[in-house]
Amino acid sequence: MQILIDRYNPQSDSAPYTQSYHLIDDEIGEDTMLLELLQRLRIQDPTLGFRSSCQEGVCGSDGMNVNGNNCLSCITLAKPLGNRIHIRPLPGFPVIKDLIVDMQLFYDQYKNVDPYLKSDEKLSSDPEHEILQSPEEREKLDGSYECILCACCSSSCPSFWWNPDLFPGPAALLAANRFVIDSRDITTIDRLKSLDKAEKTFRCRHIQNCTAACPKGLNPSRAIQGLKHKIVKNRS
């Protein structure tokens, strides 16, 4: 198996380059994940840089672009990728080293949508008082809170590539919608007003790249569409 990896160390390389590695096919099982191959390659070449932590598709640290698609290497089977695999860093982010990218802007955009519950201060400060939801109200949050912030969706979004300093991106807008629809939050109107800008929510063109890239099977595009409807309704 041939594995091509786009490499770049800004401290020592004048430009990015592609390095070719080879592994013996017989040593790759049907259940071998791509991350395991990368770990084998790093034994061969300790200078190879990539992130990984939980190795279970929970932490989201090992997002990368594989054969043109964003994914998590720890839950991506190697065999179906073929005998020639091309691995690149997540698009749209500055490269720190090889497959390691600087996600600070992604985190900043996520923080800017206030991704936390804003409830009545008197009630939330009282440990004896529960802020209750009906089962139906709780069910509305399914598909919104499971995001692991791997950035696979945002880094597959052309709107985020073009305006990362203005457009929050799919992950941030998914989180924004999660708190807009939460029955316990008391700042729904303020949230909708802050998102009612051409360069924010309405920059999304719904090309579905984000939904296709999400390793958790979430649908950011649908959440953003719902957010747009709520914003328009709030205007009247």
Provide a concise account of the structure shown.
By secondary structure, the chain is of the alpha+beta class.
- Give helix % range: 25-40%
Average of per-residue pLDDT values? 94
Q: Helices and strands: which structural class?
A: alpha+beta
**What is the fold named in CATH at topology level of the largest domain?**
Fumarate Reductase Iron-sulfur Protein, Chain B, domain 2
Strand content: 5-15%
Distance between the termini: 59 Å
Order of helices and strands: EEHEEEEEHHHHHHHH
The CATH class label of the largest domain is: Mainly Alpha
Shape: elongated
| CATH homologous superfamily descriptor of the largest domain | Alpha-helical ferredoxin
Q: What is the makeup of the main sheet?
A: 5 strands, mixed
Q: If you compute it from the alpha carbons, what radius of gyration comes out, rounded to the nearest whole angstrom?
A: 20 Å
- Treating each run of at least 4 consecutive H or I residues as one helix, how many helices? 9
Which architecture of the largest domain does the CATH hierarchy give at level 2?
Orthogonal Bundle
Strand order of the largest sheet: 2-1-5-3-4
- Provide the number of structural domains: 2
Low-pLDDT segments, ≥5 res = none
Structure description:
The chain has nine helices and seven strands. The longest helix is centred in the last third of the chain and has 16 residues, at 220-235. It is an alpha+beta fold. It has two domains: 2-101, Beta-grasp domain (Ubiquitin-like (UB roll)), CATH 3.10.20.30; 104-235, Orthogonal Bundle (Fumarate Reductase Iron-sulfur Protein, Chain B, domain 2), CATH 1.10.1060.
